[in-house]
């Protein structure tokens, strides 16, 4: 059994506790047991689980795993302290706010002989799975992905906070390059819009937009033009019986048990680091453009 602690009690932290208390029957997730949670706030028991301190979690022999569910800006610090203590770590995306930091953290996990897993539930949704099936075998000519949502503090630059969408594009169309990026921001009205121009290995253009502001609904618009057809909306997909967080919990548990093939682990690490490298480049180009405009 892998005793676990949940760091951060927001939506993700709540779901992690829920899923460990009632794991998918006959799955690897049954090997996880929740021992406590950590929060900056003083809280009552959560789903029957008691609050503990960071020091307790780091020192206890019965706690082998940490689930980091804090705001993005706090991921690196929490990951590093648990890896240093020899604990396995599952973290909500993105694991870090720079590509270099992510490489350092993964190297540290390897040095300590523990698992570092970055959650990517956006790849586990039924609509994305169906989209990937529908895209398979088609030749992209040009693509567009526009996400809108309410602005949240502590989540960092949009290329990182929105890395789920970038991961979609990489998983669908392979490794990408950044050709241009710009950022529009109105701090007084809590609005920002990032536009990134990407290109595939086949030199086909992709435009990715993240637009955040008050009153904006969480929504994705797509327009993928292929050699044989054009997709302008996500395909309908049947709701799956196992939730996306539970699917991720099972995958992480399989990693803990050594049940995931080495080539799959290597491909996942390569994809995660590639997306973070792209996010780094998008941020760099966007800030350069903002400085020139100023």
Automatic annotation (TrEMBL):
- The chain positions of domain Gfo/Idh/MocA-like oxidoreductase N-terminal read 4-120
**Entry GO MF terms:** biliverdin reductase [NAD(P)H] activity; nucleotide binding; zinc ion binding
A Pfam family of this chain = Biliv-reduc_cat
Gene Ontology biological process terms from the UniProt entry: heme catabolic process
Matches recorded under InterPro entries: Biliverdin_Rdtase_cat, Gfo/Idh/MocA-like_OxRdtase_N, Gfo/Idh/MocA_Oxidoreductases, NAD(P)-bd_dom_sf
The residues covered by the Biliverdin reductase catalytic domain are 128-237
Name of the protein this chain belongs to = Biliverdin reductase A
